[in-house]
Amino acid sequence: MAVPFSIGKIFDSATQVDGTVFGMQLKHFCVAFLAVLAGGACASCGQMALLKIIGERIITKLRSSLYKHTYVQNAEFFDTHRVGDLISRLGNDTTMVGRSITENLSDGLRSLAFATTGMGMMTYISYKLVGVLALAFPPLAAGAFLYGRAVRDLSRRIQSNQGTLTRIAEERLGNVRTSQAFAGERQEVHRYNDQTRKIFNLAKREAVISATFFSTSSFLGNATFLALLYVGDSMVRSGSITVGDLTTFVMYTGVAGGSLFGLSAAYSDLMKGVGAASRLFELQDHRPIISPTKGMAVKSARGMIEFHDVHFAYPTRPSILVFDGLSLRIAPGRNVAIVAPSGAGKSTVASLLMRFYAPTRGTITINGHDISKMNARQLRRRIGLVGQEPVLFSESIAENVAYGKPEATKSEILEALRLANCHFVHDFPNGIDTLVGARGAQLSGGQKQRIAIARALLKDPDILILDEATSALDVESETLVNRALEPLRQGPRTIITITHRLSTISRSDTIICLGADGKVAQMGTYHHLIADKDGVFAKLVKQQISGR
Ligand SMILES: Nc1ncnc2c1ncn2[C@@H]1O[C@H](COP(=O)(O)OP(=O)(O)OP(=O)(O)O)[C@@H](O)[C@H]1O
Ligand SMILES: [Mg+2]
């Protein structure tokens, strides 16, 4: 900020006899001033590096805290939020906010300081000339305010559409084979293009708005400049200011004007950051209903499992009751099969027991303790779940099997693989270190299921839930898995099998047959249930045997 002032003084010294600047010889002044400039450059280097580092740090912190926060959300949250959108928030929005807080804020503050000092110096030189400038200020300020608001809203919309774009790419590319199988490539490309076009249109609008704002304010600035020179000229002629002062003033006007311009640019970027931040706060403020860490410690999940008059509807579909007063008891150490028509709520029983969702009414107890009072994470450690559509992570087979118990030894992993009849692993060149590909794509459906069974067995759970866990296996492999699981069936473990296969059902001690009305229709041993010819179970079995 000292440059214009000094240049003015140098100009004036050239027209004076003694030729000194601030009482110094010009030569000495130049050396001293060079030192000041060098000092300034060092300070600015430090500031830039520091700001960049702080910005990156903020982004890193924001990302890790948001990721952690997202990871503990309940199933309900993931039913409504799309993963692609969350990825976009973690990636783009955090970057925008980080940059905003550091670079834009510091640019803004620097511009503000420059503009204020410039104004101060200008007032010091000639308040009459400042008066000329003041005329342009109100329209500029009003313009900047309106522009900032428009940019903030646009940015929010752009970011949310960007989220949708990532979501589309993530979901569709992740399932590209299904899409190709239905020759859906064109449709998918169109879907993606439509979304990019939406973003383009919003960006276009932003471009037009900012071009209008910046060119109008630049025009206003230049016009003021012209008016300034016009008035200044007559002031120099009348001798009320020197040429040096006018030069200084004009240069300060340039600096102050440029800073004001910079201020509005920083403001608009800051507003974009605010738009992105509001999306992050939305995520940060979302508290999971079921806290994974609060509640009673769970040492063991052995004991009687009881559903007492459980009512449940999925939060995304509150009007459809899946369970309407479901009551059942599963004695400890038993092998229980749950059978029901498709969509009756078999998998939902597993989800409720795992506390992915909470019943809307009624309670579920294990050994007399309400599971809603238990620490969800510890409870889940005691339950082994093999889901209906098992998902493996893109790691090695060994890492997948040890997922629930990372400290497992190699022999434990091999034993779990043996129990789950995963002999195929040894045919792979890399054995248990074979990578399985994204979501286990490099394995067959049946192989995936068996690895998922091994993963659940390695946890040595108190309750084992097999949700159609052998549905992709042929009869022989299924028999082998069942035979391998036989010793476990004798143990203290409770095994809940959800299945359509008669062979597995008949092997169970107790069969729970759910009706379409969200209640237990029948419960008892295989022979007991099959004897009731008009019962739901007998009908299900008959349909399966006759194929009608
Ligand atoms: N995440 C969800 N959000 C909303 N509704 C759901 C959700 N998951 C399942 N449903 C609905 O809840 C009902 C019970 O589903 P569930 O998956 O428990 O059935 P199921 O008995 O396991 O069927 P299947 O034999 O086909 O696996 C179904 O009508 C289903 O449409
Ligand atoms: Mg199911």
From TrEMBL:
One cellular component term from this protein's GO annotations in UniProt: mitochondrial inner membrane
Assigned keywords, A-Z: ATP-binding, Membrane, Nucleotide-binding, Transmembrane, Transmembrane helix
Annotated source species: Cladophialophora yegresii CBS 114405
Main location: membrane
An example molecular function term from Gene Ontology annotations: ABC-type oligopeptide transporter activity
Family in the record: Belongs to the ABC transporter superfamily. ABCB family. Mitochondrial peptide exporter (TC 3.A.1.212) subfamily.
Pfam families referenced in this protein's UniProt entry, alphabetically: ABC_membrane (PF00664), ABC_tran (PF00005)
SUPFAM superfamilies (alphabetical): ABC transporter transmembrane region, P-loop containing nucleoside triphosphate hydrolases
Protein name: ABC multidrug transporter MDR2
InterPro entries reported for this sequence: AAA+_ATPase, ABC1_TM_dom, ABC1_TM_sf, ABC_transporter-like_ATP-bd, ABC_transporter-like_CS, P-loop_NTPase, Type_1_exporter
Protein location: Membrane
ABC transporter domain ranges (all copies): 305-542
Signal peptide: none
Gene3D superfamilies for the chain: ABC transporter type 1, transmembrane domain, P-loop containing nucleotide triphosphate hydrolases
GO biological process, one term: oligopeptide export from mitochondrion
Domain ABC transmembrane type-1 per the UniProt entry, residue ranges: 1-272
Transmembrane segments: 31-54, 133-151, 207-229, 249-270
Topology with respect to the bilayer: Multi-pass membrane protein
